[in-house]
Each structure stands twice: as structure tokens, then as C-alpha cells.
Amino acid sequence: MTAPPLCPILHVDMDAFYAAVMIRDRPELHDVPVVVGGGHRGVVLSANYPARRFGIRSGMSGTEARRLCPQAVTMPPDFSVLTPVSRAIMETFRTVTPLVEVTSLDEAFLDVRGAVRLFGPPEDIAELIRARIHAQHQITCSVGIAASISVAKLASRQAKPDGVRVISPDRFVAEVHPLDVGVLYGVGEATRQRLLRLGLETVGDVAALPVDQLQRMVGGHLGHHLHTLVWGTDRTELVPGGAGVFGFGEGEPEGSMGAQHTLAIDIRDRRSLHRELLRLVSRVAARVRSAGKDGRTVAITVRFSDFTTVNRSRTLREPTDVTQEVYDVAVALLDVLLDGLAPRRPAVRLVGVRVEGLRARQEGDSRQLVLGERDPGWPDADRAVDRAALRFGSSAVRRASLL
After folding, report:
1. Scanning 154, 165, 220, 253, which has the fewest C-beta atoms within 10 Å of its C-beta?
2. What is the pLDDT of residues 235-258, one digit of tens each?
3. Domain that includes residue 206, residue range
4. At 132, which CATH number?
């Protein structure tokens, strides 16, 4: 009987996916800087490696990318091309293992512990996947192999471009502890700067602290999370599913629906942000109802003018498809976030909202009212709006505050 592998988690990340797909049939662009996305107030979705040599990175503003490399060729993403390629790649993963957790259009985690008897050790499986993707789509990918999610993600980043990297548990301390804390999966620049101000520069610096001391320094939840990351003991079980990342129109995680919008100008005014949330919630909740579903978790995404992106979510006691209920939770999440950053928070550049944990709505489902609570009639109002929109168009009926 084959022993289970020590490193059963693969993180497969396509190399400059958007750019690679958009230019694969245009050989004249292979050796010149190419940026995908980054239009008016937009962000760079991808840059090929010639563009990256100028310092251009995904998530950077288009303005900054043009400043760094004025001669770069800028292309809009064509999701009619990108999405089918992504789906085909995910199906390639599933020919190896059914345990595939898709995190975006161009990356996924795979649990291959049940595949080693057919395909060999994880390193061989990684090379098999890379060969199939290159043969089928003429693009490359990098694979990280480890015992947990965060370490596999770190390994794939180190493998780029077009490589395979293994970080085994027995080598984790030697290879990861000397690195900057910013390499940890999910540690953004804001958290990195916070740790640096505390004198914690490397992964090993954080690992040297007892978990209770770390929690006192940065808070209970973050302290515990960081402790698992710096010892490579975070999540090891995958949640199969997913159909793309919530964000730029390329799909959403399985079991969720969402929308987000980059604002025409950066906004500080809270009432204006509430209106933008209402606009997005109205669209998302209508889609949820149209699909015959409801969901238990409301999540928001906020990107500030310094490009720091923050996500917050709350799980409800009962699933809902009611616009007002989703909006109330989204506003509460936003207000808590903004209050926590006062008084010197940056302006907001982008807002998004998502309903997660979707399930098929059952006939007769309705939220149980608390004793003495009046039914405000929002579900009936939503369905009246849905019928009007179906007959006369989506702008036929809108909230007064959105007129």
C-alpha cells in the first residue's frame, strides 16, 4: 500500500494568465511589454514578463503602469476567450483529482493524496499537469507543493515562472522563517507594515512569539491566524468547487453571486458609499432571486485609494434573498470597517458586495419573525420590482435614493 504523501497540496498558478492567453496567437507581441486591463481608473489585471521587468504588477493602477512603461501595449481583457480557457484548465485538474478548490480564474489548490497510486508522487503529478496545460493551451503554469494551503501558495510564487517548488514540513523553518513577513499568504501590505512597526520583520520574528503574546499585540483572531501561518499549520483540507474569482467579471466562487464597481472618483463621504452599496446590492439580490436561491453570508470588498483591499463578511442566522436585509448587513460591515480606520482613513476607490453560501430556495421559505416583530413587506416589494424589471427593463423601478 502506498504511503500518503507528506506534501499532498498543490497550488497551480498560471503564469501571467490574462496576458499569456490574449497574446498566445500574436507572436509579434511575445517579446514586447503587454499589459491587460488598466484602462481609465482601472487596475492592471496582468502583465507579461517583459512588462514586469519595468516594475509593472497586477493590481497596480493603469496610470502607474503607463508611467513605468509608456511603450507597453495595453489590451482590454476578453472574457469570451479567457473564461473558456480557464474552465478547460480546471477540468484538466479534475482529471487528476476531484478535490480541486478554485480560487480565481487562473489558480487553484489540488489535494492529490488520492491520486498518487495512479500518477505517482506529487512532483510527478505537478509535471503531468504542467505538460497537459502547455500542450492544450500553449501557456505555462507554476506549481507549489506543500502540506498546507499557505505554504503551497508560497511555493508556487517562488516557482515562477514555469517551475515547480516543494516546501516540505521538515524544511519549512529553514526555508521560510528567514523570509520577510510579507511573503505569508494573506498578509497584505497594511498588515506587513503593522508588524514591521512592532519590530517583526521576518517570519521567524513572528514565530518566536508565544501565540498569547502575539494575540495581545495584534488582536485575538489575527494573532491566531498569523501563528498558524508562521508554522505552516494552517488549513490542510480543501473545499472543492469554485468557478472564478469575484471581482473583474470573470465569474464568482461557486455558491456565491456578487458585483463590484470602481468609482469614477475616490470617495470619502459615507452616504455616497452607502448609495453605491445599495446600487450593487439591488443588482446582486435580484440575480439571487432570479436564480431561485438565497444565501446565508454577506461579504463586502473595499479598495482604498492606496490600493489596500479589505474584505469583511457576516453569516446570518437565516438565509435571505431580500435586498433590504442584504443591504443592512453590508452597510453595517462597511461602517465598522470605516470606523476602525478613522480618523485618517484613505478615500475609497472601489466597493463590492457578495452573497455567499447560496442554496436553492424552497417554496414557502421565509425568515421566522421574532415575537412581536412586524413584517415590513420587503420580500413582496422585491418581487414586485422584479416583475416590473422583467417587463419594462431593469431601470423601470429604483429606490428613490438612487434616482
Report:
1. 220
2. 888 877 654 333 333 344 456 788
3. 186-230
4. 3.30.70.270
